[in-house]
Amino acid sequence: MPDSCLSIDALLERLEHRTKFHAGYPYNLQIDYQKILPLLEYMLNNLGDPYVEGNYGLNTKDFEREVIQFFANLYHLPIDDTWGYITSCGTEGNLYGILLGRELYPNGILYGSQDCHYSVAKAAKMFRIPFVEVQSQNHGEIEYSSLRQALINNRNSPAIINVNVGTTVTGAVDDLSKVIQILEELKITDFHIHVDGALGGMLVPFIEGAINIDFSKYPIGSVAVSGHKFIGSPVPCGIVLARKHQVKSSDVEYLGSTDTTITGSRNGLTPVILWDAIQRRQHMFALEVAQCLQNAEYLYNQIVATDQFALLNPFSTTVVFQRPVELIVKRWQLACYGKIAHIVVMQNHTRPVLSQFLQEAEIKNPYCLVV
Fold first, then answer.
1. Do 66 and 14 share a domain, yes or no?
2. 101 within 8 A of 110, measured Cβ to Cβ
């Protein structure tokens, strides 16, 4: 095999440069996990259920359980009915939540808006669940009259409903109380509500007047949140929560545990990453959310002041604007959808960073930039 032209040093240099010009994806790049580097010396694998220790001893399930309990407290899930695990990403959390709905209601129909994450339609294909795509409002929130009509059309079938707390493109938040009101008015009692809170799930608990993700108040079945977004992580990860009494399991003798998760082997490093962040920063989460909201408003106001199109939904840090030239898209790693693009304002997006983007996006000759 010939010598590779790649090198770790060159990779580090590239990553350092690209981190400075990152705006389009909802990742908190302001992270520091130097203290957990020694854990890379060990093969950490959280095999099986996080609440069953199992035979494999090199695990971090105790850390995993504490992370799950933090989110259970955040969303008011009773401790005696709490179950969850650390996933590989938000998509896995959505897959699990929708699969749980299908397990509870094998003849159920999955409903999701036009603006829901692509993993919702993927789940329908993987698990062979009939999928009804519900219309969205112009700003990305679900169209409730469309949902109501879709439920009426299939009122004899159980409903598995995906509710967005922060849509992918516009950051719109579906009103959970309105969805439940529709179910009550139509007297639909067989349903499973899955909340996709990839980014918004860590924003709304700290925003006054925002929609509550509250298991004690609403008949929520499951919630998925991304760990590498607001909290921040050097590797993708997520959290899924469910009501313990609804979780299906089967024994796996050679693991000394039960099979309750989607994957077999599970990353044992990510629970420690999330646990460490929660221990160090949970008292600052509200302040971090407030700063992101303020910086998103700053970006939105700066764009609007130039008489250009911009959109910023309530309870969101996603600022939508007209798609700039391709070199700006590549340089700032913007997520685009047709003629629009967005910046998801995170902790690392300070005013100077946003001002630099605004200045570069407005220049007459962008080809002088180095991607």
1. no
2. yes
Q: What is the spatial distance between Cα 253 and Cα 39, in angstroms, rounded to a whole number?
A: 28
pLDDT digits (tens, 9 = 90+) for 39-87: 999 999 999 999 998 899 999 999 999 999 999 999 999 999 999 999 9
Evaluated on CA atoms 208, 212, 216, 217, the torsion sign reads positive
Active-site entry in 136, 177, 316, 355: 316
Sheet order of strands, 82-87 included? 82-87, 238-243, 222-226, 191-196, 159-164, 109-113, 131-134
Predicted confidence (pLDDT) per residue in 255-288, tens digit? 677 889 999 899 999 999 999 999 999 999 999 9
**Taking CA 178 as the corner, what is the angle to CA 101 and CA 215, rounded to the nearest 5 degrees?**
50
Rounded distance between C-alpha atoms, residue 302 and residue 290, angstroms: 18
Q: Is 250 among the catalytic positions?
A: no
Structural domain harbouring 18: 8-32+284-360
Structure tokens at 344: 């998801």
How far is 192 from 215, CA to CA, in rounded Å? 13
Using an 8 Å Cβ cutoff, are 207 and 182 in contact?
no
Q: Are 175 and 209 in contact (CB under 8 A)?
A: no
What is the distance between the alpha carbons of residues 227 and 271, in angstroms, rounded to a whole number?
9
Last residue of a domain, one of 251, 282, 313: 282
Cα–Cα dist 334/20, whole Å: 13
Question: How many CB atoms sit inside 10 A of residue 307's CB?
Answer: 6
Q: In terms of domains, do 204 and 290 share one?
A: no
Quick check: helix, strand or coil at residue 303?
helix
